[in-house]
Amino acid sequence: MKDKKIYLSSPHLSCKEQIYVNEAFETNWIAPMGPNVIGFEAALETYLGNGNHVAALSSGTAVLHLALILLGVKKDDEVICQSMTFAASANPIAYLGATPIFVDSEPETWNICPNHLEEAIKHRISKGKKPKAIIAVHLYGMPFKVEEIKKISEKYEIPIIEDSAEALGSRYKNQKCGTFGAFSVLSFNGNKIITTSGGGALVSRNLKHKEKAEFLAAQARDVAPHYQHSEIGYNYALSNISAGIGRGQMEVLDKYVELRRKMNQFYTEIFHKKEGITVFAEPNADYFSNHWLSCILVDAKVAGFSSEEIRVEMAQNNIECRPLWKPLHLQPVFKNAPYYGETVSEKLFEIGLCLPSGSNLDDAAKSRIEDVLKHFTQS
Ligand SMILES: *Cc1c(COP(=O)(O)O)cnc(C)c1O
User: How many Å lie between the centroid of ligand 1 and the Cα of residue 275?
Assistant: First the structure.
């Protein structure tokens, strides 16, 4: 019999979710919004602290879409976006008929490069169009260079949309990711550090933003006994059932961050003696990553094999690994979008690999992973 598949990152339920979901059934709150949504938002607000306001919505992608709308992004506007990220970071720019301007990464955090960001802003302004927003991502849970990016955002007065979809539980200088941007985005998709099966949240320092997002997400109904609309609305609310799962997950979030970080430690120990392989790690003590996914870079010339060879052998053993995000400026769908940078993200894509990182990987799974990786570390 074939061994059970080991996934990169699969949902990890505690037993608390069921209690909140049952409550939704028992009280017949089978609807978008409801007590679980309010409870989930409150749990996130407590977790993030510092007067942050949270609107729980149907997906991280929906949150990015609404954040762009709240910043007034319209057709033919330009929005800067980190190139090395999941397509969902940039797709909502296209929903609005605006143009993404992609920027390369720097090699320390793999996130948006401050130098190329400034170059892009200056060049776009010189062409007569000031970008409306900067979408910066904490990739794989690693905080981007928060201070440098914020400085540029302030200098040119272009707000940051902080894509923290992968970074709930991460910190920069002890401040939690999801609290840095003009708007911050969380995701609770099935593969993220905590899940609601599908869901997201908009985080803002301003209560009005939360209220406006919730208004737009619930079809933009004006106050009236009949259905009255003065704006285009969306159906982006979170289900009360999904939010019940989220409430349960919030109770184990800190534990899951620790377990993901232990997976990173596990790989660091496996590879520490192998030349040519580096495990992605925080550049210094200012950074604290939730290590949503543990990633390695393989210098094939030094190691004697490529990241692809590891991926294939792991797949043969029913263990899922995946190359890093393919930079969006290389994606066919974005081929006409302007790009600023060199080849940092391209190179990362070429030699990088994401390894199984779930908080639910037990000793048996780890030992299967280790057995396959031993072929490589001992070659
Ligand atoms: C998952 C993810 C999103 C989108 O979130 P969904 O909830 O799946 O819509 C956006 N950005 C990044 C970087 C992600 O990893």
Answer: 33
Domain boundary among 218, 251, 284: 251
367 C-alpha to center of ligand 1: Å?
30
Distance 87 CA to ligand 1 centre (A): 8
Contact 109, 144 (CB under 8 A): yes
Confidence of residue 13 (pLDDT cuts 50, 70, 90): very high
Phi and psi at residue 9, in whole multiples of 5°?
-165, 105
Check which CATH number belongs to the domain holding 37 and give it. 3.40.640.10
61 CA to middle of ligand 1, Å? 6
- Look over the chain and give the mean of its residue pLDDT values, rounded to a whole number: 97
259 shares a domain with 242: no
Nearest atom, ligand 1, residue 200 CA:
7
Taking the C-alpha atoms of residue 93 and residue 336, their distance in angstroms, rounded to an integer, is: 14
Q: Is 319 inside any structural domain? A: yes
- How many structural domains compose the chain? 2
Contact 169, 140 (CB under 8 A): no
Last residue of a domain, one of 251, 268, 300: 251
Residue bearing the CA closest to ligand 1, atom 2: 165
Using a 6 Å CB cutoff, which residues line ligand 1? 59-61, 85-86, 88-89, 137, 163, 165-166, 187, 189, 200
- Is residue 1 over pLDDT 60? no
pTM here is 0.97
- The model's pLDDT over 330-362, given as tens digits with 9 standing for 90+, comes to 999 999 999 999 999 999 999 999 999 999 999
Q: Strands of 171-172's sheet, edge to edge?
A: 175-176, 171-172, 287-288
Which residues span the domain enclosing 176?
Answer: 17-251
Whether 78 and 202 share a structural domain: yes
Query: β-strand 183-187 against 200-204: which pairing, if any?
Result: antiparallel
Check whether residue 329 and residue 303 sit in a common domain.
yes
Nearest CA to ligand 1 atom 6: 60
CA 246 to ligand 1 centroid distance, Å: 16
- End-to-end distance of the chain based on CA atoms, in angstroms? 28
Over the stretch 268-324, which tens digit does the pLDDT of each residue have? Answer: 999 999 999 999 999 999 999 999 999 999 999 999 999 999 999 999 999 999 999
CATH number at residue 304: 3.90.1150.10
Alpha carbons 310 and 321: distance in angstroms, whole number: 8
Determine which residue's CA is closest to atom 5 belonging to ligand 1. 60
